Amino acid sequence: MPPTGVDLRRGVRLSLNALLTLSLLALLLLAAARFQQRGALAELAEGAADRADAADAFHASMVLVAGVPVLGTLVLWAVWFRRVRLNAETLAPGSHRFGSGWAAGAWFTPVVNLWFPKQIANDIYRASAPAGPQGPPKGLLNSWWVCGLVAGAVNAAATTAYALAEARVRRSFRLGVDGSWEEDVRRLRMLAGVSAFGYLLCAVVGVLALLVIRQLTRMQEERALVAVEYEPAAAHPDDPYGALPSVPPGPYGPPYGNPYGNPYGDAYGGGPAGY
Fold first, then answer.
1. 144, CA 20 to 30 Å: which among 155, 163, 168, 214?
2. Which long-range CB contacts under 8 A does 209-215 form with residues at least 24 apart?
3. Residue 79: which residues within 8 A CB-CB, separation 6 or more?
4. Which tens digits make up the pLDDT trace of 204-238?
């Protein structure tokens, strides 16, 4: 950690990147499982119920496998997000609308998790951006948040509708009810495709999240390094006037460097002897 107080340790960020990558692979497997279910439902009318059951079992197993990295990603995301919020407070004190506790808790609080985390992310982004009269563009941040909301809505609606339609089809087969079960199967195939699309949207959100992590980390590192470079030098104990502010190096070395040396001789700090 530099003396500015900004926490730049990489352990949590690297672990989060690794878990996010595993979650992306798990989401792709879930999408493949849904597409397999969709193909098996097309053969259900021909009596191929065994293939449909196998596809359902494969999807259920993928849900269990994907749950481990996804849950780990959620926990590490909250930890990392709170850390960058604390760093942003150090870089721009008093410019945040929410406390650091909300940076972690807002993600798990119903209803308010639809907009609190985005407002906190906006404050972090503004505090971490390079100083200037014009605010930095937040295209990546906005794209990540909008895609996340759309993916969450699509997955919630598709998963609920699929479960209800599947229960109806199984009930019709179990009771031997004649009627519109073929229409129910067609609806189930359509919902399987929508669910697979939702999983792919979640994978896109994961890719954007990796880019957001990289961008915020780079911005805070640059701000912290600039603060260290221009930090005032320590005062000499015999200096009654304190320390002078540090000056950025000139084009010829130390501040006010002279490319031609000192023409007044060694007695004044350099130059050819005898001058």
1. 163
2. 209/20, 209/77, 209/144, 210/17, 210/20, 210/21, 211/140, 211/144, 212/121, 212/140, 212/141, 212/144, 213/13, 213/16, 213/17, 213/20, 213/80, 215/140
3. 12, 104
4. 999 999 999 999 999 998 888 875 554 444 444 45
